[in-house]
Specification:
elongated; 4 helices; two-stranded antiparallel sheet; 86 residues; mainly alpha
């Protein structure tokens, strides 16, 4: 089930943390925040929790979701390459 809210006519997806529950505790989100978004870890944690920096409703824009998808795909490729070298 997708949770989408509109804020200032921008779509935000707020259930990303739930969608990533199978890997959530296995990822270093701090590195993803800095390397792929150029943002602080707290920025990414707020996005994953579906809140904005002030505690209100927030989430990922469609563009941010594409960046996150690309980051996870890149990370999976790196893990696969490392495993193949064993």
């Amino acid at each position: 089930m997708e949770t989408v809210t509109k804020r200032n006519e921008r779509v935000q997806v707020t259930d990303v943390k739930k969608r990533l529950s199978s890997i959530y505790m296995k990822i270093t989100w701090r590195e993803i925040a800095g390397e792929y978004f150029g943002k602080s870890p707290s920025w990414l944690y707020h996005k994953l929790d579906g809140i904005d920096g002030n505690g209100g409703k927030g989430g990922f824009t469609p563009e941010e979701l594409l960046v996150l998808k690309g980051a996870l795909t890149d990370l999976s490729d790196k893990i696969r390459l490392a495993a193949e070298q064993l």
